[in-house]
C-alpha cells in the first residue's frame, strides 16, 4: 500500500489543482480531483473497471506492480506485486484479469492474487478485453502483433498479424474488433470469431501516428486520435470512409467514447484533454479543450459516473543528450511517429512521490 503523502507534496497538488481551475477553457468539464499516489516506476495505461468499482494502475521497472484503487474514493484497495506491465483489464463474467507484462500475468479480480503467468511472443503493450466472447487481446509492436487469450483459463487461442504496430483497440460488442496501426496510418478490422484481419482502413490522407482509438458502436463511428497532424480523424467503422477530422492537442496516447453523452475524448501529453461532441453521425465539433497537468496522455472512462480518469507525474529537467558519433545509426525502437519533444531524446527524471491520479468531469 502507498504511504501517506508528505505535506509539501500534498500542498503542491492543491496548488496545481487551483492553477488548473484558473486555466480551464470554457465548457462543462474540469479537473475535479488530483489524488497523489507516489511510488516508484514508470507508467503507461490506466484502466477502470466500472462494474467492480476498481481502477488498475500498472507501474513498470524493477519495482513494478499493479496498484488497485477504489473508483469512488481513489483509496488503494489492493496491490499485485512483482508485475512490470504496461497495463491491465478485467473480465466481469469470469472474474479474471490480465496484465501486459512479459510473461502476461493472469490474476483474480476480487482477491488480486496472481493465478498464472502466460508466455507469449512479441512485447506485450496495449490490450483489449472483449466481453463479446471473453477474449483478452495482447497488442505488441513486434510480431505477432496480437495474441488472443481465453478469459476463462488464460489459454492462448491464436495470434493475428496486422502488418504493423498496434496501439489501441476497440470492440463493437458484436464480433468486430478495430485496431489502430500506429506506424502505418491505418486501422485494422478483425473478425473476433475467426481471429482474422478482414479489412484495413487507410487514413493517411488526413494524417498518421494514430495512438488513440474509440468507437461509437451504435452508429458505427471510429475516432482515431493522431499525432502527425495533431488531429482526430473520424471515420465510418462500416466501410472506412473518412467523415471529417478535428484539431486536438500534441502527443495523444489514448481515446475513449461515452455513449451516454455522445462524446469522444482524446488525452494529450501537452496538458490538454480534447472533448469532441457527436451532434449526429455526420456532424461533429470540438466541445472543449480541458487543461490538465502535462503528460497526462492516457485515459479511461468510468461509465457509472461519466468521469474520465488519467495519470501523470511531475518531472525534473531532461539530461543533455550526447552528440551521436560520426556514422552512428539510429537505434531501433525509437519514439513513435509524430512523438512530441518530451518523448524524444533522454527522458527527464520523475520527481519522487509525485505520481498522481486525476479525475475529470462536470
Query: Briefly, what CATH class of the largest domain?
Result: Mainly Beta
Structural class: mainly beta
Indicate the percent of residues in helices.
Answer: under 10%
Q: Kindly report the spatial arrangement of strands forming the biggest sheet.
A: 1-28-27-26
Gross CATH architecture of the largest domain: 7 Propeller
Question: What is the string of SSEs from the N terminus onward?
Answer: HEEEEEEEEEEEEEEEEEEEEEEEEEEEE
CATH superfamily label of the largest domain = YVTN repeat-like/Quinoprotein amine dehydrogenase
Largest sheet properties:
4 strands, antiparallel
Explain the overall architecture.
The chain contains one helix and 28 strands. Residues 1-8 and 329-333 have low confidence and may be disordered. The protein has one helix at residues 7-23; strands at residues 30-36, 42-49, 54-60, 65-70, 76-81, 88-91, 96-99, 104-108, 114-118, 124-130, 135-140, 146-150, 156-160, 166-171, 176-181, 186-191, 196-202, 210-216, 221-226, 231-236, 242-247, 252-258, 263-268, 272-280, 283-291, 300-302, 307-312, 356-361. A four-stranded antiparallel beta sheet has the order 1-28-27-26. A four-stranded antiparallel beta sheet has the order 2-3-4-5, with no helix packed on it. It has a four-stranded antiparallel beta sheet with strand order 6-7-8-9, with no helix packed on it.
